[in-house]
Structures are given as structure tokens and as C-alpha cells.
Amino acid sequence: MVCGNPVTIIFYTNSLQVNPRCYNCEVTSYCLHLLHRYVRLRSKLLGLDELHMYDLYVPMVPEAHVEISREEAISIVRQGLHPLGEQYLADLNRSFTEGWIDWLENRGKTSGAYSWGTYGVHPYVLLNYQENLDNVFTLAHELGHALHTFYSNQKQEYINSRYTIFVAEVASTLNEALLIDDLLKKTEEPKRRAYLLNHYLEQFRGTVFRQTMFAEFEKLVHAKVGAGEAVTADQLSQIYYDLNKKYFGADIVVDELIAMEWARIPHFYRPFYVYKYATGFSAAVALSEQILNEGEPAVNAYLEFLGAG
């Protein structure tokens, strides 16, 4: 242990030039009362006397079924990202007009959505676009990655152009934060607003609180191993179960089977990976607020960040 941290945390954070204290901030629990409040609200809105872990994945507010064409999606994303300024919008527009995006499902095409590229060539975005609002958010998200790659390749030599996961999710989730802010300002219909708000809250639950819980699980397990203790599957399950009770609170039934969920989380095979999602999302929310409140100076600083690799 070094300063209360397993040596493995020191190793993996140092490799990214990240202060280990950043990781410690991830595993504090002073905001858990907000998650507990959300759990109570979910139980109330779903009309359940007893909320179980699997009920967290039931839509709390059904999506208003509105078909959003490709052209409409482009317009929505352009408008939502308008606060990022003329240069960003001009480069964003290139992705729509110069064939950066593979939009539709096809035989043999992998599922999901991705951004990828190689140095010296514009990035590509792979989508399987369905005409709904969730997929509009996905479009904004992947274009955040694409423009990050685009600016990094413009500003950096090849050897410095790659960026780490620690900063990658900032560029993508900031776009989503700006988009949801714009949509909420323009949406008056109560059910649609409720859907948007719940969409945002679910991002906090899944990306901040859940990933932080994963990070705390890793820290506890590595601390045990670092202290020379043997760790069995049953012990791992008990640690994971206790963390679920801590994070989700007394107003949800923490089912026994959730104790074994750790075994299906592939990220645990990439040590100290998950905290980056929580830090990236938190930074994106803070930066989006800064951009909306301060305008051009904040935009310029953000574009400089995107070009830093």
C-alpha cells in the first residue's frame, strides 16, 4: 500500500500521468443520497411496492415514439452543438457531406456504433441508425469521438496523435450534454421532457455511480491481494454484494444473484479502467456548463484540448 492505495493503482494511474488522488475521489460516497433518492423516485413512478435490481433496467418514462429521419437527426445535432462555435460546426458538417458516416445496417456489418480512423485520413463513424431519439444521441456521441480524432491529427505529429480513454469520453459525452440541454430548452410537452430528463439521469446512474462502484470493487480486491490475503470467488461475490447495498440503498431489494455480477464485467480484466468513464463524464458535464455560460473563451480552450492528443 502507498498512501492508502494498492500499488497496482499507483502503477496504472502513473502510466497515464494521473494523480492517484483522482481515483480516491471516485470512491468517495458523499453523493450517494442522490442515487438513493433516484431509486425511491423510480419505485414510485413504476408503481412498485418493492423495487428489485432488475427493475433498474425498466424504462421509467416510455420514449415518445417519434420517427427521426437521417436528415432530421443531422439538423438536431447541428443545432444542439451550436454552442461549440463556427469552426467546430464547419468541421462537423464535413462529416455529413464528405461521407464520413456509414449510417445503415447491412449484411455482415457489426452491431453498435463506433468511431475509428487512421492518421492522415479523416475519421469514420460506423452506425446502425434507427430512427429514434436514442440513436440521435448516439450520433452526437460518436461524432464527438470523430472530431476529437480529427483535431488531434491536425495538431499533432503521428507519434502524439493518439489519445487515451481517460480523455476520450470527454469529447463524446460533452456532445450529448450540449444536445440534451438544447432539447430541454425547446421541449414543452411533459412526457417528452420527462423522457429527456430520465435519459440524462440514467447516464449519471450508469456512468458515474455504477462505474464508481466498479472502481471501488477493484480497489478493495487489489488491496486484499496486496496485503497477501487469498481471495476466493465467494469473497469477491460478498464484496460486490455489499457494495450494491451501499450504493443503491435501503429502498431496493438487493437480490442475492447480483453478488455474482462481477464475473460478467469484462472491464475488470483491464485493471483500473472503469473510473475513466466516471471522470470523463463528470468532466464533460462541467465543461459543457462552462461553454454554455462563458461562450467563446471556453470554446477556444475546449478546442485546444481536443487538439492536444
What does this structure look like?
There is one protein chain. The protein is an all-alpha fold. The chain has 2 domains: 7-63 and 199-277, Oligoendopeptidase f, C-terminal domain (Neurolysin, domain 3); 70-192, Collagenase (Catalytic Domain) (3-Layer(aba) Sandwich), CATH 3.40.390. It contains 11 helices and 3 strands. Strands 1-3-2 form a 3-stranded mixed sheet, covered by helices on one side. A hairpin with a 7-residue loop joins β2 and β3. α8 (190-226) crosses α10 (275-294). The protein is globular. The relative contact order is 0.15. The model has no long low-confidence stretch (mean pLDDT 89).
Poorly predicted runs = none
User: How far from one another are the termini?
Assistant: 32 Å
- Could you say which structural class the secondary elements and strand pairing correspond to? mainly alpha
CATH architecture tag of the largest domain: Orthogonal Bundle
The total strand number stands at: 3
What composes the largest sheet? 3 strands, mixed
CATH class of the largest domain: Mainly Alpha
The CATH topology assignment of the largest domain is: Neurolysin, domain 3
Provide the spatial order of strands within the biggest beta sheet: 1-3-2
